[in-house]
Design a protein that fits this description.
single chain; about 350 residues; mainly alpha; ABC transporter involved in vitamin B12 uptake, BtuC; 14 helices; disordered N terminus
Length: about 350
């Protein structure tokens, strides 16, 4: 005769329910759901938003934001920051224009520009990891330095005579479809960064550094060396974005990507990466980039001024810093109430007072 199944005790069921609820209420999950809702509502309510043509423009617009956000996610997860990503992109574009006018072939120029970006990132990493200077101060300084060097190279002029084969690829689509060519590299790079961050020892080391750099160092993690190479990676990707930006707009200018650092940082934080490090997911960041780019795209279709777009980006940046802390406080209060209820169900126990 088989025994009847026994119900799990409440103290076993409650933690499972609490963990599931906490995951459901996590910031990155909320952003993914919010992004999906916004895309559906915008497609139904905003003229031309849901068209395949606008989808192509949306991907082209979010491509530089997402590319810069990928390495920045890793940097912020360690508890550092890089505010010079847009200036490195502008300097890479200016260097690309100078090299092109000097007569070098574009096939040689593109890897050189990526290398220049890596050198710029290495300079950031040297200041932060070797000299021990605060990343915020360093990258604010190099933000101005790199942009100034871009103007030294090109001034107010623009280099616009780029080969159509390359510019056509930057803005073109795959075959007869509406899918932009740049989408495939975006998917591949996003997958690679996601694997590194969430499925490798390096990713676990990055989160450990963000949670407690001293404890990470005592556990054998090479904290400063890892951070240095993350800055090099950020610079190399910024150089790559400089190449893409120049070819997409068929123009090498010193002011290319000006102000983009605000959008990139806002997208990363809005995607759930903690500004203090040690927390975040790449799917959340991708959703944050898509949501931010979609909001900007929808506002442009609605004829909203550029200044308003900047205000919206700044507002989302503030929300992304404050709201996760508020949600954490709410979850903590809910957990305390759950524990108080569990204690009251135990005979002879004196429950702790339930928070008001």
């Amino acid at each position: 005769m088989s025994a009847e199944p026994q119900a799990l005790p409440p103290e076993t069921v409650e933690p499972r329910r609490s963990a599931g609820f906490a995951r459901l209420m996590s910031w990155d999950t909320s952003i993914i759901v919010l992004t999906a809702i916004f895309l559906v509502v915008a497609s139904l309510s905003i003229e031309h938003f849901g068209t395949t043509r606008n989808f192509g423009f949306l991907v082209l617009d979010l491509a530089p934001i997402l590319l810069l956000a990928l390495p920045l996610t890793l940097i912020i997860a360690t508890g550092e920051i890089d505010l010079s990503v847009a200036s490195m992109t502008g300097l890479a574009s200016a260097a690309m224009g100078v090299l092109w006018t000097s007569g070098l072939p574009l096939e040689t120029i593109m890897p050189l520009v990526v290398l220049i970006g890596a050198v710029l990132g290495a300079l950031n990493g040297f200041f932060v990891t070797v000299l021990g200077l605060p990343a915020l101060a360093v990258t604010i300084g190099t933000l101005a330095l790199y942009r100034g060097l871009a103007y030294v190279l090109l001034g107010d002029t623009a280099v616009a005579d780029w080969p159509r084969d390359f510019t056509g690829w930057a803005i073109g689509t795959m075959g007869e479809t509406f899918v932009p060519n740049i989408l495939i590299p975006l998917i591949v790079l996003s997958a690679l960064f996601g694997i590194v961050l969430h499925a490798t020892p390096l990713g676990r080391s990055i989160f450990a550094m963000g949670a407690n750099a001293t404890a990470a160092a005592f556990s054998g993690i090479h904290v400063e060396r890892t951070k240095f190479w993350l800055y090099v990676l950020s610079g190399a990707v910024a150089g790559l974005v400089g190449v893409y930006w120049t070819l997409r707009y068929s123009s090498a200018r010193a002011d290319n990507a000006h102000g983009l650092e605000l959008t990139v940082v806002a997208a990363v934080l809005f995607g759930g990466v903690s500004i203090f490090g040690g927390k975040g997911t790449l799917p959340g960041v991708i959703a944050g980039v898509l949501l931010l780019a979609s909001i900007q795209n929808a506002l442009r279709l609605g004829g909203v001024a550029t200044e308003t777009l900047t205000v919206v980006t700044g507002g989302l940046l503030i929300i992304s810093v404050l709201l996760p802390d508020i949600l954490t406080a709410v979850r903590t209060a809910a957990e305390r109430r759950r524990r108080a209820r569990a204690l009251r169900r135990q005979p002879g126990s004196t429950p702790e007072p339930e928070p008001r």
